């Protein structure tokens, strides 16, 4: 039996994605009411971290525990992967012992190669290309605060990075219009842009981009691995700082999201996360609930094996 993987939003149908968001909200409600729900008892998630993490590790580890299972944290220092064991070999062995694997890595090919050799579900906890789990949380947050995102106008401001690429996939899967405001040379993936066609517009002027927008999102200007470019990026991206005044150009009911960590005074003004239009804290918490829905969806419950 070949496992279902979640390396990209394209790995699910639009209907599946919508039901995952709805399920995330249900699981959140169960937790808020203190209801014990443990469908993944005795299930084990292996978590491979080649990149540092706060929210991804906490949300997957806590999520597995809350669903009755366990999570094992693996850094390259602790495994043979850091010493050159072929990814395919590691996948074959690990997937014989685990019920699912989450990988947070640099090259997206690490994920695809691991998944090709794994008999259990593989989840993309972030790669240089995509960050689909964050988009589940973002979509759940919008749904909770504003209802359906279908047909709405969404704006990405700043670097055309993995988050921006996942927003393009989300535009296609959740059926919204996306505007990307970025400096020249920092556009998102060209193949994704071509695939998205007129659903995505790339603009240079953030003010023009946020005109009438329902959702505005941004990210740090230099991602992990780009530390040597920080000075150059700071001057280039300075006009792309998201401020309260910039949000004033958007629709009155605009929602602001940031996947965190945030660098106040850089990609956002010092006070933006305190603005009532910002839902970044709910968004961060929703990583837990959306990923629990994803784990429940991908990992067979223990009682199937009785």
Automatic annotation (TrEMBL):
Query: To which pathway does this protein belong?
Result: Amino-acid biosynthesis; L-arginine biosynthesis; L-arginine from L-ornithine and carbamoyl phosphate: step 1/3
Q: Which residues bind carbamoyl phosphate?
A: 53-56, 80, 104, 131-134, 259-260, 287
EC id: 2.1.3.3
Q: Which residue range or ranges hold the Aspartate/ornithine carbamoyltransferase Asp/Orn-binding domain?
A: 150-297
Keyword annotations = Cytoplasm, Transferase
Uppermost EC category: transferase
UniProt-annotated location(s): Cytoplasm
Keyword Acetylation recorded = no
Ranges for domain Aspartate/ornithine carbamoyltransferase carbamoyl-P binding come to: 4-144
Q: Which reaction does it catalyse?
A: carbamoyl phosphate + L-ornithine = L-citrulline + phosphate + H(+)
Q: Chief localization class?
A: cytoplasm
Quote the record's binding site residues for L-ornithine: 162, 219, 223-224
Membrane-crossing residue ranges in chain numbering: none
What domain of life is recorded for the organism? Bacteria
What family, per the record? Answer: Belongs to the aspartate/ornithine carbamoyltransferase superfamily. OTCase family.
Annotated protein name in UniProt: Ornithine carbamoyltransferase
């Amino acid at each position: 039996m070949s496992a279902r993987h979640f390396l990209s939003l394209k790995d699910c149908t639009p209907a599946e994605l919508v039901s995952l968001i709805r399920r995330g909200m249900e699981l959140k409600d169960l937790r808020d009411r203190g209801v014990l729900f443990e469908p993944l008892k005795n299930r084990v998630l292996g978590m491979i971290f080649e990149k540092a993490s706060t929210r991804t590790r906490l949300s997957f580890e806590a999520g597995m525990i809350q669903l009755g299972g366990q999570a094992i944290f693996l850094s390259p220092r602790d495994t043979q992967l850091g010493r050159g064991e072929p990814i395919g070999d590691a996948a074959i062995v690990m997937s014989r012992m685990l019920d699912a694997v989450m990988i947070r890595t640099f090259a997206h090919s690490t994920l695809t190669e691991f998944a090709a050799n794994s008999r259990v579900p593989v989840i993309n906890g972030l790669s240089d290309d995509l960050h689909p789990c964050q988009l589940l949380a973002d979509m759940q947050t919008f749904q909770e605060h504003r209802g359906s995102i279908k047909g709405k106008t969404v704006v990405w401001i700043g670097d055309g990075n993995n988050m921006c690429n996942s927003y393009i996939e989300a535009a296609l899967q959740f059926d919204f219009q996306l505007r990307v405001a970025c400096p020249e040379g920092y556009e998102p993936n060209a193949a994704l842009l071509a695939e998205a066609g007129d659903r995505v517009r790339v603009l240079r002027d953030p003010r023009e981009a946020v005109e009438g927008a329902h959702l505005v999102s941004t990210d740090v200007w230099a991602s992990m691995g780009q530390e040597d470019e920080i000075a150059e990026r700071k001057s280039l991206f300075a006009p792309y700082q998201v401020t309260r005044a910039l949000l004033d150009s958007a629709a009155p009911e605009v929602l602001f999201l940031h996947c965190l960590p945030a660098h106040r005074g850089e990609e956002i003004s010092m006070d933006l996360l305190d603005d009532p239009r910002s839902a970044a804290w709910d968004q961060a918490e929703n990583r837990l609930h959306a990923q629990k829905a994803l784990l429940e969806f991908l990992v067979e419950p223990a009682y199937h094996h009785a």
